[in-house]
Request: fold
Amino acid sequence: MKPIILGICAAFFFAFTFVLNASMELSGGSWIWSASLRYIFMIPFLMCIVLLRRNLRPLLNEMRRSPVKWMLWSFVGFGLFYAPLCFAAAYSPGWLIAGTWQMTIISGTLLAPLFFETVYTKKGIVQIRGKIPFKGLIMSFIILLGIVFMQMEHAIQLSLKNVILGVVPVLIASFAYPLGNRKMMDMCEGRLDAYQRVLGMTLASLPFWFLLSLYGLFTVGLPSGSQSLQSLLVALCSGVIATVLFFMSTDMVRGNMQKLAAVEATQSMEVLFALLGELIVLSVPIPSPLSWFGISIVILGMILHSYVSHKKVEGYLNQSVNLN
Reply:
């Protein structure tokens, strides 16, 4: 239950991304600076936390072992995740991006065969290839059904171009984030805590963010003071607090694809939190009854997803061991 609670808390702070990115876009800020400034601003906060915990040297030693892999999977998990998300904010409202982002629930489930699970048997520890938890996948589709109801009346008001440029980048991000996160968990094998792993991935992805910033400098100029301040808030709330909470929750269920899928399903709460944030901060219109019906389905689907994953995990693992 603790990983689920941490996942929901992470979803609350992740929602700041959608609300503040929408705010920056409305005020004329470029998606380039919204993306790059977040990770540049994250460095001081994370560095202080890791230094105070006296865990910097183990992190640097770990990164020296496989620098290329660190840069690759950090680029996938952070670069291909957040840059497309900010790009989409230039073409779609925050509510639609938050809704489309829930595709990560299914994306994470479909990635299961790419990884191995740790199973404890009488003969010792056994590594088996992950399987797609189809019952959990059905619950994920229930969540997405609720999202469809939420976005239905709004999406028909957008042009085809805005739908494509606002949806496709988010779909790319929905696969990149869980893929990069899980690959880094496999690499670290529990040797690093969540703070170390987030700092390491941020440092390893800095070349990409610096190149993106250089591109922004020559194409759109320097960011405004308002955009810099809001990017700082995103870095603190979403980049540091939310990411660390989410990584802590996924670390607790590392090696178990069903429980991992349940934790990732908690991110569906971002839709509700982002909607509330836009109502308060951006004064968007109050959702219709159809949208509230969709929100209810999303929450119900998340609860059912977690319940099924928790109840079936023991039988699933026993079946996997018998097959081997």
In short: The longest strand covers residues 116-121. Residues 136 and 308 are 6 Å apart (CA to CA). DSSP finds 13 helices and two strands in the chain. The two ends are 30 Å apart (CA to CA).
